[in-house]
Amino acid sequence: SKLTSLGQLEMTWRSRVHFHPLLVRVLHKSRLRYYGKPEKKLDMPYQAYFEVADGSGMMSMVLWNSLCPEWYNSIKVGTVLLLEQYAIKNSYPFKTQPTPGDSQMKRFPAIEISLNVRDPPTKISIVPEEMVKPEWGLPEVKYRFITRSELDDLPNNHSCDVIGLVTFVGRAERARKREHGEDFWLYRWAHAIDGTSDQPFILELFATSQPDVFEHIHPMTYLVCTQMRVVRDLTEDPSSTIYLTTSNESQIFITGWHKGQPYTKDTKVKNFIQWTKTQSEADQMRKTVIGGYYPFPRPPNNFLKY
After folding, report:
1. Cβ density class 80-109: b for 16+ within 10 Å, e for less
2. What is the mean pLDDT of the chain?
């Protein structure tokens, strides 16, 4: 069928009602958002953002309501989609923006693709990877992996991807989203090493929309976290309180989930796998810890400072 591109859509969307099909690759995936309120009678008040791209650039795509339970788990980072009968809208100005792995990629921030059950009823098709043709010009998924030795030089809020061997994982903890609200964020702390430094990555992992992964992080698993943000306490000694926290677009993977993921081709991931082959499993097991209370960042040494 006759296809259109994201670049053409941006130029012509105001003058049309029906759009030609789109062929795109998913580069980023946000956590699932529930926006239900007691007074609004919506059956499935869910929403999820994806960043999708073709040869012309990258645009946001929004999955709405009952399409979320149907499609959210099937659409992964790297998935190629054929979209038909979608709507184009002005984009929501306050949404989070992931940092693209390819800094040269053009962005179309003014509009977004809206996928709904009706008005119009969107048709989504997943194209198997073996059927994707090079002449379609779809970009590959690119990452920004860093090693632990590089972390100390990175600025606050820098976006990066990491891989490491888990040596500690804390219990799940809760923090209130708002001071007097009833909603909580669920999170846990983890340490992961990659052989490039004596220090581990300190990771604050909020529960994303991957409960099956979040609940099974344990010592000695290979952990990949994408779209993490650097957090530095710039007031105290900056080197002692550097850690990484998840963002809205973070994805977490553990041993058993890595097969077929686009990051397996990344050089730093391959280097890490080579390093793990030189390690003694028994030695590393002795150093691992699980559970317990983990106060971080650490309170000051004396009570006056605290």
Report:
1. bbebeebbbeebeeeeeebbbbeeeeeebe
2. 91
